[in-house]
Amino acid sequence: MTLETQLDYAQNWEKQHPNDIWLTQPLGGGKLRDFTFQEAMGEVRRMAAHLKGLGLPDKSNIALFSKNTAWWILADLAIWMAGHTSVPLYPTLTSETIRQILEHSEAKLIFVGKLDGFAAMEPGIPEGVARIALPLAPELDAPTWDAIVETTEPLAGEIRRPKGDLATIIYTSGSTGVPKGVMHSFETMMSPGERFTESFEVRKDDRMLSYLPLAHAFERYVVETGTIGRGFHVFFAESLDTFVEDIKRARPTLFVSVPRLWQKFQLGVFSKMPEPKLKTLLKIPIVSGVIKKKVLSGLGFDQVRIAGSGSAPIPAELISWYRSLGLELLEGYGMSENFSYSHMTLPGESAVGYVGKACRGVECKLSPEGEVLVKSPGTMLGYYKAPELTAEMFTEDGFLRTGDRGELDAEGRLRITGRVKELFKTSKGKYVAPAPIENKLLLHSDVELALVTGNGFPQPYGMVVLSEQARKRAKDDAAKQQIASTLESHLSEVNATLDQHEQLDLLVVVGDDWTIENGLLTPTMKLKRSAIETKYGASAESWYQKKQPVVWA
Questions:
Q1: Mind giving me the DSSP string for 20-58?
Q2: How many domains does the chain have?
């Protein structure tokens, strides 16, 4: 058969390579379960038969609420095979957001899987929404995946869906307000996945570790659609505590992450080998090769041939640092509304600070205001039940408004310079773009997160969250003074690179962490600016009055 949709590809692997291992799932306590294509698709067919037997309306919306596991992908395929549409939920949502999504999507059923803190989330599931418990789910009163699979006869034969059918509704992470339901067809998902794997020559013998939320378009595009299209082996992470071991088990050949985690990996290296010492060793010809191999092996990246970063801007210096280790960190750029398929850098063609050229089949231009406008094979069908919002997202000639400000160089490479709506105005009437300044602040080895704000103040100011190691050191007064001194020097260095109206009056070290759980980061670890500014805004005046370059909040 002609392979067009995820279902077509998955059934083809089932037929052509039934005994090849496809997915590896940790079960806890060091136990693992490997799924062959035949075993995986056997479970998919049985669950699809069960869903069809429930008598749900055709093309019902079915929610998928779990951390990444093998059964996440299998449930997605089962939903599609049964003729329905999947609605993924981030595994860190509050009960309020869960209810908003489930009610808005009119989900008829929800798969509940591996989750932390489910007791606080469960009230968000409306009464009347049927449940199925995936393996590794918290205890709940619902039929289980294993019991259903054990007692249900599988659907037989080739099951196909038109490539233009609505396949999924991805609710945005809500960094700018209430989540919106981004509608994607099988084609707007599969076409980007095929082009991605072709561009990077992804092979069946590649390996990936799945740990970024599959509810997000980025992981779905690279990992789920990638493995369904190319059949490569996917390993799943067990927990944060076992993450390094999970990477080493997978020995990935392809590895994608987000800037915050790339920075955490770097800070982990520095905690074992101070930055000045590492710099010195990397300059010694005979020693540098050994050190590079040791650092990459320690991170589990010694087999990585393609390393990528996406979801948010990454400091150019961080990319350069990884390159000094021999890991060419490639940037990509996209959004849920184009299934993350917009721009990417290819091996040997990258330029630090740029997210690359438009992907194959993508058109890009800038508006007169500098907004990045994109046409992509992955462009969404629209927002679910929101035609007015959909219309606002497109120009008259059909380009998607990204909301990002950018610049194009002579070779067509794109540099993201900030968000159109993130610009704020000081009391002097000057506009400031915070993102480039934040990237500079993140270059201090003790800084994990940074936000620049100052709307209505004469000059902007920065807020930073220290790394875990720095926070522990700061409990000692002498160490705290030393950290403050280095931050003051760093602030001076950053200010020296900025125009006068952009220079920061002060740097505030906040004592709280910014996390997904406390609502200050999105599920993809982007800053929730409005939430952070609301939390600390009342203190800003008192910080300014201290007239100190570094203030501890």
A1: SEEEEEEEETTEEEEEEHHHHHHHHHHHHHHHHHTTPPT
A2: 3
If asked whether residues 70 and 210 sit together in one domain, one would say yes
Task: Cite the DSSP H helix spans in 325-476.
Answer: 387-392, 434-441, 468-473
User: Are 64 and 154 in a shared domain?
Assistant: yes
**Alpha helix positions (H), 333-397:** 387-392
Residue 311 within any structural domain of the chain: yes
Same domain, 106 and 128: yes
Q: Return the CATH number at 137.
A: 3.40.50.980
150 shares a domain with 288: no
Cα(150)–Cα(46) distance, rounded to whole angstroms?
8
Instruction: Answer with the one of 347, 378, 410 that is the final residue of a domain.
Output: 410
Residues in CB range of 384: below 8 A, 6 or more apart: 104, 105, 169, 180, 181, 182, 183
DSSP 8-state assignment for residue 491? H
Instruction: For residues 138 and 50, state if they share a domain.
Output: yes
Q: Based on the domain organization, do 216 and 94 belong to the same domain?
A: yes
Of 367, 385, 410, the residue at which a domain comes to its end is 410
In this structure, the answer to whether residues 106 and 195 fall within a common structural domain is: yes
Of 207, 226, 206, 224, the residue nearest 215 (C-alpha): 224
Same domain? For 45 and 189 the reply is yes
Which residues have C-beta within 8 Å of that of residue 236, sequence separation ≥ 6? 23, 24, 25, 26, 68, 69, 70, 209, 210, 211, 246
Q: Give strand ranges (E) for 323-399.
A: 329-333, 343-344, 357-358, 363-366, 371-375, 382-383
Rounded to two decimals, the pTM is 0.83
The number of residues making up the chain comes to 553
246 found inside a domain: no
SS3 310: coil
In order along its 553 residues, the chain shows pLDDT tens digits of 789 999 999 999 999 999 999 999 999 988 999 999 999 999 999 999 999 999 999 999 999 999 999 999 999 999 999 999 999 999 988 898 899 999 999 999 999 999 999 999 999 999 999 999 999 999 999 999 999 999 999 999 999 999 999 999 999 865 445 679 999 999 999 999 999 999 999 999 999 999 999 999 999 999 999 999 999 999 999 998 898 889 999 999 999 998 888 888 888 888 888 888 888 888 888 888 889 899 898 888 999 999 998 877 777 788 888 988 989 889 899 999 999 999 999 888 878 778 899 999 999 999 998 999 999 999 999 999 999 999 999 999 999 999 888 999 988 999 988 778 777 878 777 778 888 899 899 989 899 999 999 988 889 999 999 998 889 998 988 989 999 999 999 999 999 888 888 899 999 999 888 988 888 888 777 888 888 988 998 898 899 888 899 999 8
**Is residue 368 assigned to a domain?**
yes
| Domain assignment present for 136 | yes
Domain span at residue 471?
422-552
Could you give the CA distance from residue 541 to residue 547 in angstroms, rounded to a whole number?
Answer: 11
Query: CATH no. for residue 443?
Result: 3.30.300.30
